[in-house]
Amino acid sequence: MELLQPTVIDTKAISAEHPEDYFNTILSSVNDHIVRIGIMTEPYFWHLHPNSDETFLVLEGTLLIDLETGTIELQPGQLLTIPKNMRHCTRPGGERSVNLTIEHKQTETVMG
User: Fold this and answer.
1) pLDDT in tens, 32-41
2) Dihedral, CA atoms, 36, 112, 20, 71, nearest 10 degrees?
3) Alpha-carbon distance 2 to 109, whole Å?
């Protein structure tokens, strides 16, 4: 059995390479979960995930996460997990937000 070699992923370089309003891609997988980088300058739609929690880790800027009960503000280095079935909407707290998102590989998204 051949072992996979570890790969260094430079999130700062990825952030610098993507000045567009919205960018979201898978960076890595860990067992049955994926790690995504999300770059946003506009709000994402209200949605929920019926089969997976979703964890956010802010790398750059401020991330605002709107919930039905209020808004949570995350700064670089802060992490928050949204439980499955909880409606939420993410948006940058300034001009731009860069975040890591960790979720199950088979995550379903329900808009609205």
Assistant:
1) 999 999 999 9
2) -80
3) 35
pTM score, whole prediction: 0.92
What are the distances in angstroms from CA 10 to CA 6, 27, 36, 40, 105?
Answer: 13, 10, 13, 18, 22
33: helix, strand or coil:
strand
- Please name the residue that has the structure tokens 């088979």: 106
Assigned CATH for 11-111: 2.60.120.10
pLDDT one-digit tens code per residue, 7-27: 999 999 999 999 888 999 999
Residue among 47, 53, 54 nearest 100 (CA)? 54
CA 13 – CA 7 distance, rounded (Å): 14
C-alpha torsion sign, points 16, 97, 84, 102: positive
Cα 81 from Cα 102, distance rounded (Å)? 9
